UniProtKB/TrEMBL annotation:
EC number, as in UniProt: 1.14.13.81
Record-linked InterPro entries: AcsF (IPR008434), Ferritin-like_SF (IPR009078), Rr_diiron-bd_dom (IPR003251)
Annotated GO CC locations: chloroplast thylakoid membrane
Name used for this protein in its record: magnesium-protoporphyrin IX monomethyl ester (oxidative) cyclase
UniProt source species: Papaver somniferum (Opium poppy)
HAMAP family, A to Z: AcsF
Cell inner membrane is among the record's keywords: no
Reaction equations catalysed: Mg-protoporphyrin IX 13-monomethyl ester + 3 NADPH + 3 O2 + 2 H(+) = 3,8-divinyl protochlorophyllide a + 3 NADP(+) + 5 H2O
Protein family according to the UniProt entry: Belongs to the AcsF family.
Domain Rubrerythrin diiron-binding: 125-258
Length: 400
């Protein structure tokens, strides 16, 4: 899982019932926890804690119907499961190309010490959010690896090996936080964070997109910094080339999983859901990143150009498997995204005021309606029919 897993239901957090980041200060080193609001006031040592505001579009943790997953991957019940393909994928994961890749050096601390002022804060936030998103993938894949062991040991082992990768990614990001004298308390995070439930088919759509969009984000940043080394302000980006190959492999595995479940790809409902998940993931990334332009500008990127590149490439990739995708290359799509950014800025401004939550919620209503309107209009733009040619093997009557 990569930087943008958590993106569905972009307007569901307005009531602020979700947990928030807290920081407990301990000499010069801080543990960053995720806590429910009721436990967020003091540390064990009684020292003051700095609340890091959880944003509207913060990374989420996911859970699913594991019993249904077991049924879906039962080789006796599902004859579409291409065991040779999964066996080949398993061998690739076992090869563990990045076993020795994530090794730190002294450049990290030196670079972190040089980052000061607002850019330092925004780097910390980038590391926290990325670590949370990677860790979210670790938890989900670990549980799937455990639960599918009996019904499909091959698929189960792949999930376990993917959780290995995500743990490595999360751990590496957490080590990065130590350069800034911080650490995420991942054990606490596991218990305190709210989990979003998705049915298996929605886990497939969301996770596939998350992995692929993660791949495109990492590889785009890596290539940009390779050609513009003056913006290489922190060495973690040098690791993105191999790192993103992990995300690409994870995405390919979900692609194989979806091909084994053609009922999730070959009807009108699948087309509607594919477009819905594409829209949710793209809009959430765009709104998130436009709130953090200082980060992207700090590494020499134009935020909106970067995001549009990532969206277009992810959409082209998704078109190989999803039966329908959005027409993101139509300039009207970007215009709609930009209008959503403006609306989101107004919503954020309301959240910043000192007014009561009742007044804030009342003031939000017209903006939420406007945002919903833009989302619906983007969703209803004429889509692009797409899909994998491989599906013809399963559904010869369907012409893609
Ligand atoms: Fe991943
Ligand atoms: Fe990852």
């Amino acid at each position: 899982m990569a930087a943008e897993m958590a993106l569905i239901k972009p307007i569901s957090n307005f009531t602020r019932t979700s947990p928030k980041f807290i920081t407990s200060t301990r000499k010069s080193f801080s543990i960053v926890k995720m806590a429910t609001q009721s436990t967020a006031s003091t540390t064990k040592s009684g020292k003051p804690k700095k609340a890091i505001k959880e944003t509207l579009l913060a990374p989420r943790f996911y859970t699913t119907d594991f019993d249904e997953m077991e049924t879906l991957f039962n080789t006796e019940m599902n004859k579409n499961l291409n065991e040779a393909e999964f066996e080949a994928l398993l061998q690739e994961f076992k090869t563990d190309y990045n076993q020795t890749h994530f090794v730190r050096n002294k450049e990290f601390k030196e670079a972190a010490d040089k980052l000061q002022g607002p850019l330092r804060q925004i780097f910390v936030e980038f590391l926290e959010r990325s670590c949370t998103a990677e860790f979210s993938g670790f938890l989900l894949y670990k549980e799937l690896g455990r639960r599918l062991k009996k019904t499909n040991p091959v698929v189960a082992e792949i999930f376990s090996l993917m959780s290995r990768d995500e743990a490595r990614h999360a751990g590496f990001l957490n080590k990065g936080l130590s350069d800034f004298n911080l650490a995420l308390d991942l054990g606490f995070l596991t218990k305190a964070r709210q989990y979003t439930f998705f049915k298996p088919k929605f886990i497939f759509y969301a996770t596939y997109l998350s992995e692929k969009i993660g791949y495109w984000r990492y590889i785009t940043i890596y290539r940009h910094l390779k050609t513009n080394p003056e913006y290489q302000v922190y060495p973690i980006f040098k690791y993105f080339e191999n790192w993103c190959q992990d995300e690409n492999r994870h995405g390919d595995f979900f692609s194989a999983l979806m091909k084994a479940q053609p009922q999730f790809l070959n009807d009108w409902k699948a087309k509607l859901w594919s477009r819905f998940f594409c829209l949710s993931v793209y809009v959430t990334m765009y709104l998130n990143d436009c709130q953090r332009t200082a980060f992207y500008e700090g590494i020499g990127l134009n935020t909106k150009e970067f995001d549009m590149h990532v969206i277009i490439e992810t959409n082209r990739t998704a078109a190989r498997i999803f039966p329908a995708v959005l027409d993101v290359e139509n300039p009207e799509f970007k215009r709609k995204l930009d209008r959503m950014v403006q609306i989101n800025e107004k919503l954020l401004a309301i959240g910043e005021t000192e007014e009561s939550s009742l007044v804030k919620n009342l003031k939000r209503i017209p903006h939420v309606a406007a945002l919903a309107n833009e989302l619906l209009a983007a969703y209803l733009m004429p889509p692009i029919d797409s899909g994998s040619v491989d599906l013809a093997e399963f559904e010869p009557q369907v012409v893609y």
